[in-house]
Amino acid sequence: MSELARIQGEFQDYLLRGTPGIEACVAGSARVPIGTRLGIYAGAYGSRLIDALESSYPALAALLGEEDFQSLGAKYVRTHDSPYFSIRHYGGALAEFLGEHADYADVPLLAELARFEWLLCAVFDAADAEPLSAAALARARLADWPALRLTFHPSVRRLALRWNAPQLWKALTEGGERPELRVVAEPVEWLAWRQDLHSYFRSLEAAEAAALDAARAGRSFGELCELLAEAHGSERAPQEAAALLAGWLGAGLIVAAAPA
Amino acid sequence: MLTRPSLGFGLGLRVDHYDAVLAERPPIDWFEVLTENYLVPGGKPLNYLMRIRERFPVVMHGVSLSIGSTAPLNREYLRQVKALAARLEPEWISDHLCWTGVAGRNTHDLLPLPYTREAVDHVVARVRTVQDVLERRILLENVSSYVSFRDAPLTEWEFLAEIAERADCLILLDVNNIYVSAVNHEFDPLDYLNAIPPARVQQIHLAGHEDHGDYLVDTHDHPVRDAVWELYASAVRRLGPISTMIERDDHIPPLGELCAELERARATARCALEEAGTAAPVARAAALLRAGAP
């Protein structure tokens, strides 16, 4: 191993794990001893990564408060190194960490709020795509409709939550009264997406969630209608299908529709 | 002439200022953008960036090249930087003379290198590779540092100058970083400045730092300090008109406040050039060339 590689390995071990060794390679002065000098780097490493967590998880940070969030961040940083060239991607395992760590696991809302916030990060800078207009879809030939497959906007994300974390997120980030925390037996289905550079989320009824998931999985419009007939009866299914499709188009969720 | 004519006086583009930049047409000549912030698939950051690009020249400034690391160059990173550059058409691309991690880790910090022959050779080879991949010269910026290494025989300015000459790359001279390191390592910042080959310097950074009494920390969360303004004037006297920008990364004030600080940079440079004009024919010639005159 080269001398340079050895120095870099020891320096990094010191920053990431506090492992001693690098002290022997660096110089101090009477005014500023080695420990102070190295400490500037160690402190900056932790605070930079915690800052990154705070910018991805603003509601969690607001809920916990400065001291508790710093403490959470410090625990996470000690156990999670960054392999990313962009610091924006650091922190994706925070929900899992909160769900498993003894200090946080008994408040499952925390992990759910983190899951929701990380999802919003993905929505925020997902790839762009031009939404399909209702007028463009209306031009599809009637004979093609049963086989139409929908392509969704790259920002579209789905998630199921037992706690009312999205409502809490809204109160924490946009101000307003905090909702009373609620947990439900059956998870609530959520949809998040971006339209015209703005991120949106809303809850879904079970039937819409099932139809949306089926459509995203590549099922045809004909198959969606069958699914809806199971939920609403064959009489109401066409009307429900048309309403869902109109809603999805209006929200900019669909970017293409073509027969398979 | 290796370098391009001066772009004038710029700022680092920050999210807080996106709307003001587009709405107010502020007196800013160009913007420096943080490369990694735009290595994303889409959405608001890229949308604003491309709209701002339509109105202002931009340069790309990265923090994750890790040119001095002994880990292999991150080819995926380079591919993405090159793709962004193809889209953005920046005036130039810069990163730092440092390393950021080894063994697949990124510390997200600009860590100092030992100023040794071994490190010079290592960095020179990597700069050449990066320039081949990106098909352009890059700029390397001097970083602030808080430790120096034992058994490192070169000064920082010798290290930087030799790498720039041998790798045939350009220099982004951060005047604040020179000052911070000069205090922390007890050298004369003018020794540093006077050893830098003027023909290799394409851009200057100005920023604020935090004074801890016995040492300084490069925090980019304060206005530029008086001592750094003085050093900037010395740099302009030596280098002639040169693309200059102010970096503010934390405690970001309203755009107008930074524009006022940029006005001070303009005034400082103007005074320095007038002084240099009467004193040094070489600087005057360099000034004319940089200003784009024949």
Question: Could you describe the 3D structure shown?
Answer:
The complex is a heterodimer of chains A (260) and B (294). Chain A is of the alpha+beta class and 260 residues long. Helix content of chain A is 52%, strand content 15%. Chain A contains 11 helices and 6 strands. In chain A, the strands form 2 sheets. Chain A has a 3-stranded antiparallel β-sheet with strand order 3-4-5, with helices on both faces. In chain A, strands 2-6 form a two-stranded antiparallel sheet. In chain A, helix 2 crosses helix 4 and helix 3 (58-64) packs across helix 4 (66-79). With 294 residues, chain B is an alpha/beta fold. Chain B is 44% helix and 15% strand. Chain B has 10 helices and 11 strands. In chain B, helix 2 (44-53) links the parallel strand 2 and strand 3 (58-61). Chains A and B meet through helix 1, strand 1 and helix 2 of A and helix 2, helix 4 and strand 6 of B.
Count of extended strands of chain B: 11
Largest protein-protein interface: A-B, 47 and 43 residues
CATH top level assignment of chain B: Alpha Beta
Report on the biggest sheet of chain B: 8 strands, parallel, barrel
CATH homologous superfamily caption of chain B: Divalent-metal-dependent TIM barrel enzymes
The rounded distance between the terminal residues' Cα atoms of chain A is 56 Å
The CATH architecture of the largest domain in chain A can be given as Alpha-Beta Complex
User: What percent of residues of chain B are in strands?
Assistant: 5-15%
Strand segment count of chain A: 6
Shape of chain A: elongated
Query: If you consult CATH, what is the topology of the largest domain in chain A?
Result: Outer Surface Protein A, domain 3
Q: Ranges of chain A with pLDDT <50 over ≥5 residues?
A: none
Q: Would you give the CATH topology of chain B?
A: TIM Barrel
